[in-house]
Amino acid sequence: MQSTDPDSPVTNEPLSASEALPKQQEPSEGPEPGTEAANPDGSESVAGYERVTVEAIESDGEIAFPESLEGLRDIGEASFGPLPPPPPEGVMEVVIGNDDRVKITNTTVYPYRAIASLVIVAADNSSWIGTGWFISPKTLITAGHCVYIKGSGVPGRDGWVKSIKVIPGRNGSSMPFGSAVSKNFKAVSAWTVNGNPNHDYGAIILNTPLGTSVGTFGFGVYTDADLLQTMANISGYPGDKPSGTHWFHARKVTAVNPLKVFYDIDTAGGQSGAPVWRVIDDKRFAIAVHAYGGSTANSGTRITAAVHANLVAWKV
Q1: What does DSSP say about strands 127-134 and 163-168: parallel, antiparallel, or unpaired?
Q2: Cβ-based neighbour number of residue 98 at 10 Å
Q3: Residue 199 dihedral angles phi and psi, to the nearest 5°
Q4: DSSP state of 107
Q5: 272 catalytic, yes or no?
Q6: What is the mean pLDDT of each run of 10 residues along the chain (316 residues)?
Q7: Of 197, 191, 202, whose CA–CA distance to 140 is shortest?
Q8: Per-residue buried b or exposed e for 42-68, using 16+ beta carbons within 10 Å of the residue's own CB
Q9: pTM for the predicted model, two decimal places
């Protein structure tokens, strides 16, 4: 009998049973992190970022990955189609107003090195880009639509992607921590069966423990009142900037609902799956998985107790 729980985990590999309480998971900065202290408001200290007040290497030798990211589109387009102007609510990530994103020039320091550029090969061998982030030595979290394509309308494209190349701390053509290729993915039934955007999150499992070197994000479950006072940070690999470069922005959370966190942080296609994080006592804790946008707000899949339990179960 199929589970009716929308967060029922599914995978293209056998899943081990695990139980966990929704307690805050601690991050790891990895060796020699070079982390800078966050600003007093909870935003990361990034040169050039203008703080504002806002109210309320391994290869399996089988998959042919493109040598360049030039011309590759956001994996979100595979499920939702290209983004027409003006951007419709709840489709893909957008820049809201002026583009205030700042380039991360040193991607070898934590937390930016714990964020990875993703090169995704779909079932029909088409190639796409996305973003993921480490929660354990071998596990990255990303958007569900980065690992499982829904409703593309293209024969042979829907379903689990074929392979993902993970490049932590990428800086253009530089890959300071190498890369790893995965064919082991996880998501939840509400996304894989129904394409429900409220449950758009998943995981990438590596054979190589790159997270030991680059560090990991913590994550937790937080109340509405707490989140509405939180400064949210997002960093990742947008497709509208020079190929493979890493970009950051931060603003306060503007709204929440039981399954989503909303913010007017500037993002673009390619940042699907990026971490949305807060800083507590100079530790980085994810609050959501960035996935969608609209003309007035972008949004991420909120880390609820159910999402938290799956993330803990997926840690390797």
Answers
A1: unpaired
A2: 8
A3: -130, 35
A4: T
A5: yes
A6: 67 48 81 84 75 37 58 63 46 52 92 96 93 97 94 92 96 94 95 92 96 96 94 89 88 92 73 93 95 73 95 95
A7: 202
A8: bbbebeebeeeeeeeeeeeeebeeeee
A9: 0.82
| Tokens coding 233 | 């940070």
Tell me: cis bond preceding 86? Omega within 30 of 0 counts. Answer: yes
Q: What is the CATH number of domain 71-79+89-314?
A: 2.40.10.10
Q: Cite the DSSP H helix spans in the chain.
A: 76-80, 144-147, 189-192, 211-214, 224-227, 305-314
Angle among Cα 149, 155, 161 to the nearest 5 degrees reads 30
Structure tokens at 111: 């937390």
| Beta bridge pairs of residue 187 | 10
Active-site residue, selected from the candidate residues 145, 249, 290, 308:
145
What is d(CA 91, CA 98) in angstroms, rounded to the nearest whole number? Answer: 20
Q: What pLDDT does residue 19 have? A: 39
Q: What is the C-alpha R_g of the chain?
A: 17
Place of tokens 């394509």: 149
> Which of the residues 272, 290, 299, 308 is marked catalytic?
272
- Domain layout of the chain by residue ranges: 71-79+89-314
Is the sign of the CA dihedral 108, 28, 36, 254 positive or negative? positive
Q: Round to whole Å and give the CA distance between 275 and 173.
A: 22
Residues 290, 232: Cα–Cα separation, whole Å? 11
SS3 131: strand
CB contact at 8 A, 197 and 308: no
The answer to whether residues 137 and 210 touch, using CB atoms and an 8 Å cutoff, is yes
Burial of 1 (0-12, 13-18, 19+ CB in 10 A): exposed
For the record, the structure tokens of 304 come out as 């609820």
- Per the CB < 8 A criterion, the answer to whether 186 and 202 are in contact is yes
Distance of alpha carbon 135 from alpha carbon 289, whole angstroms: 12
Residue 189 annotated in active site: no
**Nearest residue to 79 via CA among 292, 268, 289:** 292
